[in-house]
Amino acid sequence: MKITQIHAREVLDSRGFPTVEVELEAESNGSKFFGSAIVPSGASTGEGEALELRDGDKKRYGGKGVLKAVANVREKIAPALIGREFPNQFLLDDALRDLDGTANKSKLGANAILPVSMAFCRAQAAAEGIPAYLQISKLFESKGVTLPVPMMNIINGGKHADNGLAIQEFMIVPAGFTKFSDALRAGAEVFHTLKKILHDKGLSTGVGDEGGFAPSFTGEKPHEQVIQSIMQAISEAGYKPGSDIFLALDCAASEFSPEKGTYLFEGQKHSSKEMIALYSHWIENYPIISIEDGLSEHDWDGWEELTRAAGSKIQLVGDDLFVTNPTYLKRGIDHHCGNAVLIKLNQIGTVTETLETMKMASHAHFAQISSHRSGESEDTFIADLAVGTDCGQIKTGSASRTDRIAKYNRLLRIEEQLGDKAVFKGLASFPAFKRK
Ligand code: PGA
Ligand code: ZN
Fold first, then answer.
1. Alpha carbon distances (Å) from 90 to 44, 356, 400, 418
2. Which partner for 234 in 105, 195, 241, 307 could form a disulfide, CB atoms 3.0-4.6 Å apart?
3. The domain spanning residue 301 has which CATH number?
4. Ligand 2 centre from 91 Cα, in Å?
């Protein structure tokens, strides 16, 4: 495929902050093909993430403009790539990495590089006459037929809300179904039931960044109150907790850890050991299937201990810990820290490197979760990534806000398109989880 045009512009994400959109045109066998992509943006970012280039000009969007990244696409990437043949994604992504030349994409910005990489993937799918998920399945040498189990973040806290909850995400995981569309329906029904429960308790039903409710629970043990409200919502919606629907947490603990091994939780200082004891108590008492970033990204010793304590019972996911980066993931695999990795394309910056991290995880029997960021857009690439790699899990927010729903709707269309070929593995998508 010969690249004939690359155009970039500044558009807005779901929080109203600027982000980069790229449109790419390529020629293959005398025909033109097109691909476009918009990159997302995180709030609780890991320190090891690839660089997101922001203008820093306080007069525009409080410094969050991305005109420098847009200029890097227009003035550095486009002139270097236009007119060149790229037979595949790997060679294109190599060229992008060479152009940048840094380990963390700090010269051009991951937000300049990634949308070109994603747009190329879509243009190549168009040239092959196949959907993006099948294009990804070719790159990943997978079947590209597995609809992911949704991990739906229905109560938001931490950096995604303003309600005093330390834990960032309380998710429901409808893994006890045989079809994606049935799982999604159950999740949405629980979300609606929870709204009523919160309303009846006099709590706010306004939503946070990922479309989950963001109520301020007062009194003792607010986090456990949240868990109990969700349990109630599952039952009242007519589903069985621990058989139809499970719970998952993203603690994003780096955000409430002021120093290594210390956690500020519910008004008190806790050690890693105390946090592990708390999680173990919750795992004993509630149908928790997965905990993400239970400890901070600096607390590797704590992670080893957490994995010894809970890694044979539930899924333990590294997000800030691994930042979709093979170097950090390898450390985790070697030291038995966690048993799953959250996959965010913009943490590493190209499609190829994202797939490399997923391959490494796969070989080590670490589960992979295709994930959104808290700042999203109408782009649905992560839905195709989940199906294309057959990873079996997706984290893309609650059952509200179009930036989240766009991914679910994309998956509904893919499920219909795959027809009898569609696979939904349910609980089998969580190999680390052992039912009590
Ligand atoms: P972020 O949050 O996009 O703000 O980093 C999502 C997550 O932590 O999983
Ligand atoms: Zn996370």
1. 29, 10, 36, 27
2. 241
3. 3.20.20.120
4. 30
